[in-house]
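Example 3.2
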Amino acid sequence: MPDADRQKHQQRPGRIATGRVARAAPLVALTGRTAGEAVISALRRKGSAGVHERGAQRYAESLGRSRGVLMKAGQILSFVSLGSLVEGSSQSVYQAALSRLQDDAPPMEPELAASTLAAELGAPPEEVFAEFAPTPLAAASIGQVHAATTHDGRSVVVKIQYPGVDEAIRADLANAELLATFFQLIRGVLPDLGRTDARALAAEVTARIGEEIDYRTEAVNQKIFADAYRDHPFAHVPEVLPEYSTGRVLTMDRSDGMRWAQAREADQELKDQWGEAIYRFTLGSLRRMGRFNADPHPGNYLFHPDGSVTFLDFGCVKSWRTDQVGWMVRAVQAAIEGDADELLKCYAEQGFVPGEPPDAQGLLAWARESLTPVLGEQPFTYTPEFAARIVDLEFSPRGPHSAVVQKLALPGEYLALSRIDLGLTAVLAGLHATADWRSIREEMDLGAAPATRYGRLEAAYRKEHEA
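Structure, written as tokens:
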């Protein structure tokens, strides 16, 4: 192939550069620094709205082209509160630009998607399926989704992984500089605990993102959730079609619904129902199944007019042992009851206290911050202001709880808890969801009688399906 043609071929949309230098090039080209340094510097910089808007668009485009690890950091930044990391109204500018990474990343060309599918399923799309839409419905960090119809008339969506993205992500995870950039990008939205072992966190990130590369793992995860929620009254999980799925192609039943931007404009009563459905699905799956869908960002939900929600993307699922689930419930209960000594004991036995322990009462005050939705006056409304306050008060090593934060460490295996907690809080805040969260929590953890309509529906569903 001539050099000019080879260069053009390598630059086609959707083709991922896998070399160390190539992966870093679009990032450092911004300002001579890493993308993480550039983004953080821009977020903190004072300037006009126009300056911030141009910068935000620039960084979103760069992260979108990088795919994989750094794009996932951009996805996280797109929906969680940035707290005091961003000055004033500039936060909405950056989140608006980065929100495109949720489900609107640059797609690959139709012929590249078709050839990838053919290589995986053994025939071109027009033979494998009765109908196949060459234009994707959505494009995200690892792959893009196409609508299709099977020969027996089943409406499905087909997720096709970008060629080379698996090698690129593995290169990212093995690249200390890029992994450091990843942590720098998300440091404003994850606990910055003073004694945390960064290598343990890196190992956990490597394991979770590494699993997302293999769609066979996602198919197994999704089947587990689909089995557990089949015919559920308000939480839906699409069925996987294994005969049309491989390590790089995942086919499932098609679900149509409102995306995040449209859902946020709905009536508040409907948004409250969606909020409770997401809350119950996220925390209820932990209690019943010992599993978290550990990627709670708005691009992974479809919202329906009847108040139900379809849950997508099970590539990042964190499993917990029964004793770990019991510990989480026990720690929450100790904080709610104001038992400082029991709470400190809970944190110490799970490795959160590697050295000199923090003051027990200080730890209690710190832990109760995130429990405001169940401790405060009911019903409680999640708001963006509350989400920002949680980031600033609970996770800042320089905030009012700094004496506690600086003495704690975040064990790598519990990193998902922070991601889920902040992600769920951000989604509920974006919906301004209101509910009697205290009663819902007591129902889940203490076996209290259901206090909401969704609680009663779920209790009836569980009774029928367990029987």
